[in-house]
Amino acid sequence: MLQIALWKRLTILLVCLVGLSLALPNVFYTRAERHNDAVQAIERGAVTTPEIEADLAQWPEILPSSLVNLGLDLRGGAHLLAEVQLADVYEGRVDGYWPEVRDVLRDLRDAVGTIRRQEAPAGELRVRISRPEGLQAAVDAVRGLAQPIVSLTGVGQSDIEVTGSGDTLTLRLSEAERSATDDRTMEQSLEIIRRRVDEAGTREPTIQRQGSDRILIQVPGIGSAQELKELIGTTARLTFHHVSGRTSDPQERVSPDQLMFPSLDEPDTFYLLERIPVVTGDDLVDSQPGFDQNGQPAVTFRFNPAGARAFGNYTADNVGAPFAIVLDEEVVTAPVIRQPITGGSGQITGNFTVPEANQLSILLRAGALPAEMTFLEERTVGPELGQDSIDAGQIAALVAMAAVVVFMILSYGLFGAFATVALGVNVALIFGVLSLIGGTLTLPGIAGIVLTIGMAVDANVLVFERIREELKSARGPARAIELGYERALSAIIDANITTFIIAVILFTLGSGPVRGFAVTLGIGILTSVFTAIFVTRLLIVIWFERRRPKQIEV
Amino acid sequence: MRLKLVPQETNWDFFRYRKVTFGASVVAMIASVLIWLTVGLNFGIDFLGGTTIRTESTQAVDVGDYRDALQTLDLGDITITEVFDPTFGPDRNVAQIRIQAQDGAEAVTPETIAAVEAALQEVDPSLTFPSVESVGPKVSGELIITALLAVGASLVAILFYIWLRFEWQFSVGAVGALFHDVILTIGVFSLLQIRFDLATIAALLTIIGYSINDTVVIFDRLRENLIKYKKTPLIEVMNRSVNETLSRTLMTSGTTLIALLALLILGGDVIRGFVFAIFWGVIVGTYSSVYVAKNIVLWLGVDRDPKKPSDAGTQFSEVDA
Known about the structure:
Chain A is of the alpha+beta class. Chain A is built from 15 helices and 19 strands.
């Protein structure tokens, strides 16, 4: 007979209620959004002002407040697809070895004679020595500069390859080092872009790595792709300063030749620094996580010749004094100089964990974009156009829904009304799930929802048509309803699984509009199967139990 | 009083003119391919690379003036189309300007875009540019490949799923019908020169999804009837199955079409091509479920095991889903 266990009824009801409450904030989009922004501002440590308080009160704390992310095509904003010129970095890295190579070979002057740097293809360092017979010694000595690679894939390999032929020594990066460098370059580029975009304070930017050398940047609410390019193209300023003092009072007066910057990771700490930096990030060639002589995580860095000289002189004169590494007007770290650092490379030690060392080296490298970027794709959508699309989509969805409701009730009467209730629940569930998973609603996504509205009735139609057929076989109404659901199930499942397969393929292979569509289609299929099989059935069963009709008309 | 799209009981012979209908489908497919090859598709910048700029103005659009203004910039091929939409107000004039991918540049440079915008504002100072999109040739090539891959992968996945759930003949029939729908849609897109871009690919895949949905529902009934009527000739079982599911088919297609129609008229010009593709796909998809998929299965025949006629049909065992 038509029976649904109590716990099943409660579960179905619960799912519907949870879905509806998750969807609710989207009905009051602007209010919920202002509330969320206020919450975020407070988390970031903003001082609570009456405006923030007012925004906070726009939405009750106890209700869910996640919203559907609106895509760029709906909200307006800029989209950039950048390709990072990874090979650019090899050149700088190899150049950075020159001072060290020179120093090492100078110590061997008796064996190798005079040394001279040769013209070489990008990413290679060639040195000619005047005594070819000393080449082997030179190669061995330069090989001594090699460092083991600190990365998951390159363990046990060294970072440079040194070869010699005739009177020329060639140094290039090893394969493993190149791929490790590529990874670092990408991480660094992502980090810099993220910092730049965050600084602009825009809402929920998407900054994603795509494939081996691409970065997708989507920033809602920004005027144009051009503006976004300018924003991320600005070079972050990395500087090294002499530390004059520390304070916890942000109001403390500073002399004109001093600066006061807050510490990045120590709250309520401010550093007084000499205004003129010792070295700037323009001179920094590389920074990597590594380990110090005690096996503790450390961060190494390397300057170009000019930077190395300045840094060497400064550290020689200031052993025992702290110096500050400043990034974007924040003190990243302020270690104490233990010994003069003349080679142009140094090490920062502290109580780092390995991830912290990694993070700091990224931050250090995050001074400037490590490599040039070319922009493969740029899109700007004005906010008015986005609003137009939302309005159009909303009207279309309402009209579509109304039409379907009329059509269903005319065709199936009361059962049609049950189906339309389920349809409403279905749309709410789609929005609820989208909000929950932080999915992005795009214009094709709206089309996906409208299509789901059309198709959601399909499962109900299948069931109702089946019930009609079963009624013709003169079975009792309860039996007919039961058989209707039972027999229609296999068609519903098959039809929806095939469509779902397509949604999954679209999501995996697609990008942009294809993906936005796949998300709503996929979610829509899941929720529509749920509402068609469980929700309408529950409604029918409850109605049936109350009325106990001898005859039903579907 | 209930709305009935079809009488309660129908017993129409769907396969009487099967040669004619199937022939018509084949002709339509060939015609589509011919149009596609001769006229070609109106690819958007997603696939060709280049830049599109949308302009909006309170003054009427004069395509000739726009063209003259841009002529001096020497940007190669420029297409300017005025966009009409019933949802636009009287003082809203929209045009779409497409500039071909520039040699040697990935995305079009900001200077070029600034120059274009300045030149156009000379003509009409009230012009605004609500959207500017630029795709480099490198990415556009990849987008074509991923799109083809997505369509191909979907077809293979469906082929496999139907084969698992039904029989290989059904699988061939279903994919044949899908092929028919995709080709016919491409044909209509080349005929009407509707812009073909990434969203259109999404639409094509939706058509595949919708069409297969429809086909599977009828197949499901066929499978059931093959077990029920073991000795009835295949063509009669098929006819009965199509008749039995007819009211559902029309009901579902009808509601979906109503929903799509609303979107087509009120959804705005930005997604009109996309919605049109799906709208068209629902119509051909519904048709092809009966007249292409079933015909193919009918011709391939279903192996009802002639050696053991009494067991015919039992091989279509019901898998509990």
